Amino acid sequence: MKVEQIYTGCIAHAAYYVESKGEAAIFDPLREVQPYIDKANEDNAKIKYVFETHFHADFVSGHLDLAKKTGADIVFGPTAKPSFEALIAKDNQEFKVGDYTIKVIHTPGHTLESTTYLLIDENGKEHGIITGDTLFIGDVGRPDLAQHVIADLTERKLAAHLYDSLRNKIMPLSDDLIVYPNHGAGSACGKMMSQETTDTLGNQKKTNYALRPDMTKEEFIKELLEGLAPPPGYFPKNVLMNIQGYESIDDIIDRGEQPLEPNAFEAAANETMALILDTREAQDFHKGFIPNSVNIGLDNNFAQWVGELIPDIKQQILLVTDPGKEEESIIRLARVGYDHAIGYLKGGMDAWKESGREIDTVNRITVEELEKRLKANSAKVFDVRKKSEYQSQHIKGAENTPLNELNKHLAEFPDSEFIIHCEGGYRSMIAASILKQRGIDNVVDVIGGFEEVLENDEIPKSEYVCPSTLL
């Protein structure tokens, strides 16, 4: 059976392409739909259906644009109530894609409309299940997101639904089925997903904590809800966009791809109060950037940090990028619903510097310099990693101020020089840019972060690094 997983690492997202006899189906597409259309064209296939496993919270799906451009029907599972034309399937309803059969299995729990799609090949053999956020590799979908949109859908109610869906709908299926989830490790839609992005259902029954056969419903609910971090603030807004509809990605790209000379860029920033977002790597940003700009580099979990740190999804944004990265920046913003990029700096930072305009910088030190300051007891250190990372191991004396909580703790940073770090330098440069934007200039970043501290054999770990408090 021809099933292709199309994985996008920056948001740990998996879409699926299924094709048979000149007909194709796309499951849970991303916002930018042209790659799916191109893939179908290569197979001389027509996209017949766009299947959605649920109303996604962590990204804006491409179902509307894909349906408009191809004539495909959008399919949701039972109970879905979109504000646009779609097929609302019944439990156990079947759809044909060439010689393949797609069977609807309603699996409420992550959300009420959550649906698993059973893939049946041309010989009638059950091949796999596209599970959305119902079942991940090593985990299951968190049940606390829907209540941010519908208040009476409590996490306990949905967790109970999920327990029943897994026991009554998923676990009775054949062990040799391949599990195709919507996300892998790094997604905020679960808490302990594997780095693997597919597995057999039989192996998941053996290894996934949520599928233990002797687990009671109350035990399941307790374990599922334990340790859930608060969801990113943009999640409910993405859900509503996926339910209500949104602007075409083509219009968003056209609006954002407006090249602005330094004069025009500065004027636009002053007139619109747009956020200046610099998507270059930390090592380039720190050497020189436009004052008051925020750095979130493209080469990591860009979309997730945009969603965590920019509270207003309708915020106008002016972009500073590496040359040739303008469209990619706009698309990756739009993946999580930030549709209001209004232009970019033509010629990038080189053009800004050549114009003679003011630039700002971030001071950085090596881990060797950090060790000297620690030895001299002259370093006030802030660790901007997640609490779980900090609890595992951290620099002795460092305070933990997770990046996503930074704005709540601005008053705690001293007037004298202080040092920040994360795991590898990506998050700490985001933090440094935000602190600088808030007028806190006495910040110093550590090149390579805590990872470099651990890898440097000349730094005595017993003296400077706290062992895990979780062991």
Helix percentage: 25-40%
Which residue ranges are poorly predicted, with pLDDT under 50 across at least 5 consecutive positions? Answer: none
Enumerate the strands of the largest sheet in spatial order, edge to edge or round the barrel: 1-2-3-4-5-6
- What is the arithmetic mean of pLDDT? 95
Rg (C-alpha, Å): 24 Å
Major pleated sheet: 6 strands, mixed
Q: Which class best fits the helix and strand makeup?
A: alpha/beta
CATH-defined superfamily of the largest domain: Ribonuclease Z/Hydroxyacylglutathione hydrolase-like
Which CATH architecture of the largest domain is right? 4-Layer Sandwich
Strand content: 15-25%
Counted beta strands: 24
What is the approximate shape? globular
CATH C-level name of the largest domain = Alpha Beta
* Span of the ends, CA to CA: 45 Å
What's the arrangement of secondary structure elements?
Blueprint: E1 3-8, E2 13-20, E3 23-27, H1 34-42, E4 46-51, H2 63-70, E5 73-76, E6 87-88, E7 94-97, E8 100-106, E9 115-120, E10 126-132, H3 155-170, E11 178-181, E12 199-200, H4 201-207, H5 217-225, H6 235-244, H7 249-256, E13 259-260, H8 262-272, E14 275-278, H9 282-285, E15 294-295, H10 302-309, E16 317-320, H11 326-334, E17 341-345, H12 348-354, E18 363-365, H13 367-375, E19 381-383, H14 387-392, E20 394-395, E21 399-400, E22 418-421, H15 426-437, E23 443-446, H16 449-455, H17 461-464, E24 465-466
Parallel strand pairs: 3-4, 4-5, 5-6, 10-11, 13-17, 14-15, 14-16, 16-17, 18-23, 19-21, 19-22, 22-23
Antiparallel strand pairs: 1-2, 2-3, 7-8, 8-9, 9-10, 11-12, 20-24
Organism: Psychroflexus longus
Domain Rhodanese: 270-361, 375-458
Pfam families: Lactamase_B, Rhodanese
